[in-house]
Amino acid sequence: MIKIIRINNENKESLQLPNEDFHIFGKLIPTFKDETWSYQEEIFEKSWSMKFPDENYSLENIDNKGFALAAFDGEKCIGLAIFEDTWNKFMYLMDLKINKEYRKQGIASLLLTSAVEEIKNRGYKGINTIGQDNNLAACRFYLNNGFKIGGIDNMSYKFTQQEGKTDIYFYLEF
Predict the structure, then answer these.
(1) Which of 9, 12, 103, 134 is 20 to 30 A from 164, comparing alpha carbons?
(2) Residue 74 CB-density burial (10 A; 0-12 exposed, 13-18 middle, 19+ buried)
(3) Cα(130)–Cα(170) distance, rounded to whole angstroms?
(4) Distance between CA atoms of residues 54 and 77, nearest Å
(5) Residue 142 to residues 2, 70, 86, 127, 147: CA-CA distances in angstroms?
(6) Rounded distance between C-alpha atoms, residue 1 and residue 38, angstroms
(7) Which helix (H) or strand (E) holds 166?
């Protein structure tokens, strides 16, 4: 049975859940017309794997800016969601990751729904996050969980090794 627990001093080692590779197989192409976002998908002929660098999260820093939840299977941490306070009425989901062997079992969705009460108690009206356009699995996840596209940033990766990517801003209203 999967349990969702807020990260505290007793389980803070869960913040070091390592990143694992994921498949890049297509991209989401948003379009804004008549005040409405729509999108198309492009599936790549060849897919490849990508892995984000591991973070070194500090419970003190996270608690000063927001909160974190972890998903546990028994004593094993298998998922992590970190939320940060923002200036607007959407709390920022800054990291969401699930252990590779537990993906596609609804655990990421469970982490999000488990956070809603705390987010509402903090006075927020929803959650926002950013997904890279070429991480089609993540973009699909957010859209399938009720998030809407709220904008793009096609300059984030300019002058980097990842030039050509676009950040997509996703918003979930409660």
Answers:
(1) 103
(2) exposed
(3) 6
(4) 16
(5) 21, 19, 19, 11, 5
(6) 37
(7) none
Q: Which residues pair with 128 in a beta bridge?
A: 92, 171
Structure tokens at 141: 């996840």
Look-up of token digits 């009720």: 146
Longest Cα–Cα distance in the chain: 51
Residue 84 identity: E
Distance CA 37, CA 86 (A): 23
**Which residues does residue 132 pair with via DSSP β-bridges, in sequence order?**
167
Per residue in 20-77, pLDDT (tens digit) is: 999 999 999 999 999 999 999 999 999 999 999 999 999 999 999 999 999 999 999 9
Answer for the pair 27, 136: CB distance below 8 angstroms, yes or no. yes
Q: Compute the distance between CA of residue 74 and CA of residue 3 in angstroms, rounded to an integer.
A: 8
Write out the two tokens for 94. Answer: 């800054």
